[in-house]
Amino acid sequence: MTSPLSSQSRPRRVVVVQAGLGQPSSTRLLGERLAAATRDALLERGQEATVDVVDLREHAHDLANALLTGFPSGALREAVDAVASADAVIAVTPVFQASYSGLFKTFFDVLDEGSLRGTPVLMAATAGTARHSLVLEHAMRPMFAYLKAVTVPTGVFAASEDWGGGDPGQGLSTRVEVAAAELADLVSGRAAAAAPARSGTELADPVPFEELLAR
């Protein structure tokens, strides 16, 4: 059953961090597909969502400078701040040498310490062959565990055949929907947990004990 949207709840902010190098890029396409599915899943749970995309290709030079200077600046600073303030992150990388790309890793290297602590993260990766699908578990999940993020159980891997015509892409669609639903559950759960804290002002004017007895 679809929950009604609350007029008082702010939209959840979903940030896609994608490290695709080409234009167009299957990595970005996967990120956008996951973002759309997550937005739909949040709507089903009564939460509106906005989506921002951090295209690491545009920040390659600034990332190198950040490694040398020790701090990000300019547009890269804005991207770092966007991730730090996100309610959820969708992180998508192409696979190079059986692991995430250097561009992808560098971005998370320059994040401020603790930026992703407790943040729900959906991991995804693309490659030419399904033989690289374990990159999600042996490379990406340990990295996000170190960053204290909360990763959804289902990672999404897309090989070249997943983008072909016919039926092969159906399996990808299912994985996208499952992972998006898991991410939406985490985000809406965080929103529900935060609600009592925001309504805690009700306790600022308690009912006198004598009045409670009189009732």
Biggest β-sheet strands, sense, barrel: 7 strands, mixed
CATH superfamily label: Flavodoxin domain
Secondary-structure element order, as H and E? EHEHHEEHEHEEHH
Structural class: alpha/beta
The first-level CATH class is given as: Alpha Beta
The CATH architecture classification is: 3-Layer(aba) Sandwich
CATH topology annotation:
Rossmann fold
How many domains? 1
The counted number of beta strands is 7
What does the average pLDDT come to?
Answer: 86
Shape: globular
Binned strand content: 15-25%
Distance between the termini: 38 Å
| Count of helix runs | 7
Q: Runs with pLDDT <50, length 5+? A: 197-204
* Radius of gyration, in angstroms, nearest whole number: 20 Å
| DSSP helix fraction | 40-55%
Structure explained in plain terms:
The structure is a single chain. The chain has 215 residues and is of the alpha/beta class. It has seven helices and seven strands. It has a single domain, classed as Rossmann fold (3-Layer(aba) Sandwich). Strands 1, 2, 3, 4, 5, 6 and 7 form a seven-stranded mixed β-sheet that branches. Strand 5 (120-127), helix 5 and strand 6 form a beta-alpha-beta unit. Helix 1 (26-44) packs across helix 6 (169-198) and helix 2 packs across helix 4. The model is unreliable at 197-204 (pLDDT under 50).
